[in-house]
Amino acid sequence: AFFKLPSDSFKYLGWCDIEEHDVQGNQLHCPRVREGPSEEEQFFRGEEHTLKKRKQVTDTEKWQKKLQENWENCAELNLSFQDLGDLYQLENFKRILQRLIRVEKLWLVDNSLTDLSALRLPRCRELNVSKNHFTSFKQLPKIPQIQHLSLAENNIMTLSGISDFRHTPLESLILKRNPCEFQERYRQVVFSSLPNLKMLDGIPKLPEDCSPPDIRAFFKICTIL
């Protein structure tokens, strides 16, 4: 016979839905996105029996839940490895990201992310978005205070757009295992685009990283007098 685990009734619940606790969002450093599917989704999955019919949520209860989540006061957060396989999970994930107005350290590793350009993280100093599906620097969030950025193992093809970080305090950048790593004069181009950068792919700025432009480039210029 098939027996459900005792916790089966909690499989789609967030911590806000569990009674008699006072845990707030900024106390959770590694939360999981567990927003439940819609009733229609449950029906097609054959799981409509797993959740009891919830009472109508009042505006007061919605506001209390928003205050308890408290993501606005979160300074350090790890939302990596979320396995965002369902649309309802992805929507809840982005909803949380939009509320991180004070986060300073954020890890979003291995979430199959493709575009966060609509997101602004005004205080973020350290961002790790390794092992995602970004193809361009233009798809990253607005991060004006960024100091340490990891983009390892994405699919960034060219260094176009990297100069957008020229006016940020960016000190270290990791681009390992991106196609742009094989671009000719890769390190020189990155450091010339980002004069304040001190470290690339874990290696400090070297004298040869500041070499002048290839003299052969001048022979391609046609001057008409």
Automatic annotation (TrEMBL):
The UniProt record lists the keyword Lipid biosynthesis: no
Classification via InterPro entries: LRR_dom_sf
Matching Gene3D superfamilies: Ribonuclease Inhibitor (3.80.10.10)
SUPFAM superfamilies: L domain-like
Keywords recorded for this protein, A-Z: Leucine-rich repeat, Repeat
Keyword Cell inner membrane set for record: no
Cited PANTHER family: GENE 29133-RELATED (PTHR18849:SF4), LEUCINE RICH REPEAT PROTEIN (PTHR18849)
UniProt protein name: Acidic leucine-rich nuclear phosphoprotein 32-related protein 2
Lineage: Eukaryota, Metazoa, Chordata, Craniata, Vertebrata
